[in-house]
Amino acid sequence: MSSAFFSLPGFAKGLAGSFYSGSAETLAGAKTIDDDDAMILKLDPAGAARDVNLPAEGEIDPAGRMYWIVNAADAAENLVVKNDGGDTIVTISQNESAVVYNAGKSGGTESSWVLICLPTIALS
């Protein structure tokens, strides 16, 4: 189940992209992020470690994309963030979040997903 926890009006979102949008979701299996997903994702693994699969680098539109992924687990459950090739970018433990970034295509060359930061959080 997914629900928005904040969002801009449609015209503003069109100007700002989806950076200023967020959603909360309880996972029942792996999560595959697509280009239409919010850029701030609060994900509850719901009892087990879950894979979070990032979009393919060639599908990033517009060029450049950042996701802030928050682990909303109530126990020791990890989110394992992977690129489209299955390589692990970062493992987000309970009480952590991660920011990942991809520059998209530049001069016809696809960039890779990179971990920007792995901050500890305190959810209430």
- As for the CATH topology, it is Jelly Rolls
Task: Please identify the top-level CATH class.
Answer: Mainly Beta
**C-alpha end-to-end distance:** 20 Å
Rg, Cα atoms, Å: 14 Å
Helix content: under 10%
Strand content: 35-45%
Order of helices and strands: EHEEEEEEEEEEE
Largest sheet: 6 strands, mixed
Mean pLDDT across residues: 81
- Alpha plus pi helix count: 1
Number of domains: 1
Reported CATH architecture: Sandwich
Poorly predicted runs? 1-17
Strand order of the largest sheet: 1-2-4-6-9-12
Shape: elongated
Structural class: mainly beta
The beta-strand count equals 12
Structure description:
This protein is mainly beta. The protein has one domain: Sandwich (Jelly Rolls). The chain has one helix and twelve strands; from the N terminus they run βαβββββββββββ. The strands form three sheets. Strands 1-2-4-6-9-12 form a six-stranded mixed beta sheet, with no helix packed on it.
Name some characteristics of this structure:
single chain; 124 residues; mainly beta; Jelly Rolls; six-stranded mixed beta sheet; four-stranded mixed beta sheet; 41% strand; elongated
Task: Describe the protein's topology.
Layout: E1 2-6, H1 10-16, E2 22-26, E3 31-32, E4 40-44, E5 50-53, E6 65-71, E7 79-82, E8 88-92, E9 97-102, E10 105-106, E11 109-110, E12 114-117
Parallel strand pairs: 2-4, 3-5, 4-6, 5-7
Antiparallel strand pairs: 1-2, 6-9, 7-8, 9-12, 10-11
